[in-house]
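Dear all,

This email documents one entry for the complex benchmark we are building for the journal club exercise. For each entry we list the sequence lines for every component of the assembly. Then comes the predicted three-dimensional structure of the complex as a token string, followed by one or two observations. Please use this as the template for your own entries, and keep the labels exactly as they appear.
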Amino acid sequence: MNNLNVAKIQLNGSPYEINDGINLNELLNRLKIQKNKVAIEVNGEIVEKNKYVNLILCKGDKVEIVQFIGGG
Amino acid sequence: MEDIFTIANKNFNSRLIVGTGKYKSFEETANAVKASGADIVTVAVRRVNILDKDQPLLMDYLDPKSITYLPNTAGCYSSKEALRTLRLAREMGGWRLVKLEVLGDKKTLYPNMIETIKSTEVLVKEGFEVMVYCTDDPIMTKKLEDVGACAIMPLGAPIGSGLGVQNKINIKLIKEQSAVPVIVDAGVGTASDATIAMELGCDGVLINTAIAEAKDPILMAESMKYAVIAGRKAFKAGRMKKRNYASASSPEENLI
């Protein structure tokens, strides 16, 4: 039986399971990522940091979390 | 005498900008950046590794509060990808000063100037200060300046090639006609290449591979620091005229 509380999203290109209805802040906490060190796109739209708490993730959402790495 | 380097109304002491790619570790990156004396470092935007969250972060080794991060679009082959990358970079920490590069070919990493000009125009309208990696074609660089680029960054030679400035005449032409800073980006292989770029009158040099792939990157970083300073001072001093024959250095009168 499917657990109704679990939703599958695409996180950085791979399938990822979350508790349905969590917001972006909660996702970052779960991933242990500090929000001041990343930028996030949900379904192709950049989400401003102060809106993370209002953004509720749903099944099928495509989430991209990026950071700065070494580059030329 | 002070010789301040100004880009988009921001002042910097060092005319050397260094990349942070290709190093063995973040520790080595940080040590090389320190030895280079650079005030600006280029950084790339990539996905966070979700599976290995304990990986160290560049920001833990190079503090963006004490050194200017210049987000770049390395690896982007279209205007769309480049714009997406820089908009994400801006969201990350409010960076407005960015380096745009839109590549056209995987083998040469040569810039696609049509996409580059188009992207510059959009980014400038969105309030970005755009430093632009470009070909050493004075017509193209003029177009970039016309659409609002805050610095022109022609290649000296292909990225990572270490061949040095291949077309000195063009680099000089570009410098002479540009009202914004001209920074040689790509192609520097060793210290003398950086000095040559500066002697041509360029305002700065951007170096990554020549430092990161040196046997001793920290020592090469320091060498590049002095190479850029030497080239700049030689340019400002004004070199002697070239002659085809000798001119004795000691007086010829009163010989014993």
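Observations: Strands of chain B lie at 5-7, 10-12, 16-19, 40-47, 68-71, 97-100, 129-134, 151-154, 183-185, 204-207. The mean pLDDT of chain B is 94.
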